[in-house]
């Protein structure tokens, strides 16, 4: 019994990381139908900026804030310099641009910082918390709480605010959105800023657990993307559930079956879900009103 | 970019030579992974080679001739490494080559040098590079089989006979896992739990929970490098496993203690090189002057702490220079014969004595058993 509890707790911790990355995917996808494969790099940048500001003597909360703002600025720059000039290009081309951007960011990070792994101290110590015979680190609680808070924030943003609805309207039909007075360029800029900020926040929260280095973004983007597909691309609820589910499946496979099959099992289940429900668990049905 | 720099530097070097009195250069080539996934290995290696070549040239060169170093960055890609290898042989006409940061790149290039009959000193770990022995291929780092042997010796001395293993599923972890399983029986030790983790995994508590739950486990051995071992160490403390934990030589650096956190790393044992514990070595230790000198000049030149990997490059160049000195001429065949006759050469990794059957030339004394104590290193004797 304590084993099961341990597997689930570690699955939820890792799953919350995936969920945060998936939530970042959600926003840009909602605004532009583009899957931003530089999302993992935002997570990496969040961690790296915090590490280097912290090591330069800036207090941790301030370092985290700097990291989030700086990453958001890079997100905006990515949109202004790479995505906006290519407006009108097919979605696939835009996705390829984001892959290129992720490689560029990784390269620049190597030069600007270094190639080593880094870590900064956990927010509230390293003393494990006991839950029903299993243990969890306080930082895991921060990560899970962070994922939930971002989820609630996004859900309110998309359903309760005019700007959030404008994002959805832009995604649905850019020209129609422009005709009703939505500044779609602003919406795109905002989406990239927000998505980069969420990625950076994820980086800040997880670095004490997972460490950070210039190349951690690829694996995170892949798992986050899988989580988003599982839950349904573009839906915050889907991103959260997909992420947690993916984490728990991995942990249970590693615990009960074999750690060799951990990644394989997760992807087999995702494929099975996508065969049965191509939109993912919570995906929107693509309908066109004529 | 890299290529342009190299060309520019070569041109520059040639220019200087024209100005100086005519003197033949000893051209030594290198293909290293300065960028890419193995950059943290290749980067200190390249810096070390450049630093040492400058030092040697400033001191008058080898047999009165200057060394000209030609370094290519293969980015860890075996295909690129092979292209550079051909170029080193055909265009640059080098007399010897150092390199192959990873096992993959080393295995990809060694046949090129065997065919061209040019001595090649690899900086990668796998035993396959020198076993079976090939006439022109040598290497400096000890093998993972030796690391396993060193660890099992220590376990045996402590009376630990039933152990759990957790290994990274990357090349390093998988290879060491295989080597350890091959020789574990010789020490009367049994592996009763065997788990793996992916190189970029963020959490290993499920695997460690299983090892902890296995009846009779007395110690745990983690074969891996990179972020994995640091996370394993932190999870190990989180779960309060409470058994002795051994790590591999893949994490033998100060960075590991920092990443894992001193409280979690306390009491961990691992095999490391003399370079890591330069200050702790006894005064009469033959390696002491070599490692302290290298450490001092590397750290002064780069501002970064030395790493074991840079030490591999240091030893490779020393072996080469020593061989050219003894051969009295810089010709590939003569250098090869001299390298094979290397005897008692003190490097950072160990004391090298090569032979026709042994192109590595190190024994288990090259590894020091270390324990992490109070956030630093301690020699286990």
UniProtKB/TrEMBL annotation, chain A:
Pfam families for this protein: BPD_transp_2
Places the protein is found: Cell membrane
Keywords: Amino-acid transport, Cell membrane, Membrane, Transmembrane, Transmembrane helix, Transport
Keyword Transcription attached: no
Topology class, membrane: Multi-pass membrane protein
Keyword Metal-binding: no
Biological processes annotated in GO: amino acid transport
Chain ranges passing through the membrane: 7-29, 58-79, 91-113, 140-158, 186-206, 238-258, 264-282
GO-annotated cellular components: plasma membrane
GO molecular function: transmembrane transporter activity
UniProt similarity note: Belongs to the binding-protein-dependent transport system permease family. LivHM subfamily.
Name the record gives this protein: High-affinity branched-chain amino acid ABC transporter permease protein
Native species: Rhizobium fredii
From TrEMBL, chain B:
Keyword Nucleotidyltransferase belongs to the record: no
InterPro entries: BCAA_transport, Leu-bd, Leu_Ile_Val-bd, Peripla_BP_I
Key words of the record: Amino-acid transport, Signal, Transport
Keyword Hydrolase: no
Domain Leucine-binding protein: 26-361
Extent of the signal sequence: 1-24
Family: Belongs to the leucine-binding protein family.
PANTHER family, per the entry: BLR7848 PROTEIN, LEUCINE-SPECIFIC-BINDING PROTEIN
Name this protein carries in UniProt: High-affinity branched-amino acid ABC transporter substrate-binding protein
């Amino acid at each position: 019994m304590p084993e099961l509890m341990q597997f689930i707790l570690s699955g939820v911790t890792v799953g919350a990381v995936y969920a945060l990355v998936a939530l970042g995917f959600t926003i840009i996808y909602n605004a532009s139908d583009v899957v931003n494969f530089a999302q993992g790099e935002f997570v990496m940048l969040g961690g790296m900026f915090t590490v280097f500001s912290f090591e330069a003597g800036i207090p941790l909360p301030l370092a985290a804030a700097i990291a989030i703002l700086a990453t958001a600025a890079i997100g905006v720059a990515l949109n202004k310099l790479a995505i906006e000039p290519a407006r009108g290009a097919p979605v696939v081309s835009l996705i390829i641009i984001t892959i290129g951007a992720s490689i560029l960011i990784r390269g620049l990070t190597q030069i600007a910082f270094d190639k080593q792994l880094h870590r900064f101290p956990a927010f509230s110590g390293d003393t494990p918390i006991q839950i029903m015979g299993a243990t969890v680190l306080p930082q895991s609680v921060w990560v899970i709480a962070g994922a939930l808070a971002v989820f609630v924030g996004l859900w309110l943003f998309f359903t309760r605010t005019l700007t959030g609805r404008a994002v959805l309207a832009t995604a649905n039909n850019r020209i129609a959105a422009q005709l009703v007075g939505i500044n779609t360029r602003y919406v795109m800029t905002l989406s990239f800023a927000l998505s980069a900020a969420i990625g950076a926040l994820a980086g800040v929260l997880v670095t004490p657990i997972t460490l950070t280095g210039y190349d951690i973004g690829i694996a995170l983007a892949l798992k986050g993307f899988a989580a988003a597909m599982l839950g349904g691309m573009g839906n915050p609820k889907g991103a959260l559930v997909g992420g947690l589910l993916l984490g728990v499946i991995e942990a249970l496979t590693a615990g009960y079956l074999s750690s060799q099959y951990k990644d394989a099992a997760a992807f087999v289940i995702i494929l099975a879900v996508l065969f049965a429900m191509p939109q993912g668990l919570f995906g929107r049905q693509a309908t066109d009103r004529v | 970019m890299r290529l342009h720099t190299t060309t520019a530097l070569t041109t520059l070097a040639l220019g200087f030579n024209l100005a100086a009195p005519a003197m033949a250069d000893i051209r030594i080539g290198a293909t290293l992974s300065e960028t890419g996934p193995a950059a943290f290995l290749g980067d200190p290696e390249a810096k070390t080679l450049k630093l040492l070549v400058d030092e040697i040239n400033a001191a008058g060169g080898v047999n009165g001739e200057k060394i000209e170093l030609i370094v290519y960055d293969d980015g860890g890609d075996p295909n690129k490494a092979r292209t550079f290898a051909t170029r080193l042989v055909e265009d640059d006409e080098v007399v010897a080559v150092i390199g192959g940061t990873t096992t993959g790149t080393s295995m990809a290039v060694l046949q090129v040098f065997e065919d061209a009959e040019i001595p090649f000193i690899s900086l990668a770990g796998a035993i396959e590079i020198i076993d079976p022995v090939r006439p022109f291929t040598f290497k400096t780092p000890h093998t993972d089989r030796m690391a396993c042997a060193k660890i099992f010796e220590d376990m045996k001395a402590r009376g630990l006979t039933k152990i759990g293993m957790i290994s990274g599923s990357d090349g390093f972890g998988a290879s060491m896992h295989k080597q350890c399983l091959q020789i574990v029986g010789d020490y009367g030790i049994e592996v009763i739990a065997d788990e793996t983790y992916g190189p970029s995994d963020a959490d290993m508590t499920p695997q460690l929970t299983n090892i902890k739950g296995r009846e009779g486990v007395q110690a745990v051995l983690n074969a891996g490098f990179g972020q994995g071992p640091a996370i394993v160490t932190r999870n190990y403390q989180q779960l309060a496993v409470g058994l002795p934990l051994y790590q591999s030589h893949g994490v033998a650096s100060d960075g590991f203690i920092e990443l894992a956190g001193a409280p979690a790393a306390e009491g961990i044992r691992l095999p490391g090189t003399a370079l890591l514990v330069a200050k702790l070595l006894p005064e009469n230790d033959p390696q002491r002057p070599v490692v302290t000198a290298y450490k001092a000049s590397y750290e002064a030149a780069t501002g970064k702490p030395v790493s074991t990997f840079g030490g591999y490059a240091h030893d490779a160049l020393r072996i080469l220079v020593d061989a050219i000195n003894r051969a009295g001429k810089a010709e590939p065949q003569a250098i090869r014969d001299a390298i094979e006759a290397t005897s008692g050469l003190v490097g950072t990794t160990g004391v090298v004595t090569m032979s026709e059957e042994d192109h590595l030339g190190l024994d288990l004394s090259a590894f020091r058993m270390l324990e992490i104590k109070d956030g630093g290193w301690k020699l286990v004797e």
